[in-house]
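Example (one chain per record):
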Amino acid sequence: AWPGRKRRWGGSDENGASRKPVACPFYKKIPGTPFTVDAFRYGAVEGCSAYFLSHFHCDHYGGLTKKWCRGPIYCTALTARLVKMLLSIDSAYVCPLELDTEYVIDGVKVTFLEANHCPGAALIHFRLSDGKTYLHTGDFRASKSMQLHPLLQTGRISLLYLDTTYCNPKYKFPPQEDVIDFVVRTAQRYLKKQPKTLIVVGAYSIGKENVYLAISQALEVPIYTDASRRRILHSFGWPDLSKRISSCNQSSPLHVLPLASLQHEELEEVLGDS
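Predicted structure:
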């Protein structure tokens, strides 16, 4: 559990100006607990003593700044490193939890499960003392291994907080492994046809690592990206990824760029510099 601290429930923005926060939606609060999930943009949430962060994407950590002082932030170890490194959150407020390990926080049993989304993303499983269980998915990609997780096979989920971004029959997603294999084979085919082909992977600050790592492994080429992303990738602690990262844009036909850079004019410029 988070060590006892004197908490300051500030209601001001980064410039110190008083502002009225938007009310925290019900679906970010876990019933029967003093917990919220991904609820950092609502000021000091009444009754909340612990804030959970499902993963490090800005639409989930929005509201977190270096002035954070409202209470402990529980997240995975990888997400914790990013929160401290990129948002400069005081480490005293950051509480990393390992996946597949049960913790008791304020009398509630909490377990993080792999979300199959971006590095560090987690499903959050809460088991209350009265036996009720709640599962908050954050953003996730369903898979057979996830469905077969022992914690999800024992007993019913009392309440499910579900990511419904693509909850529509018109969407049909093949297994992630099949998608990555298709991307790798496509890259190989085009490079064989035209050896000077530039392969560009557009990505948020984190995400798509499995895609460009697989391309790098299959083509036996390094991964070029900018200094900011190199710093983030090295923080993951993935040896095979770290050894493949390059700081020279002419060293590889494989470049990882921000999604905003995937414009025709910018890509022409990148190709010309490569």
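Caption: The chain has nine helices and 14 strands.
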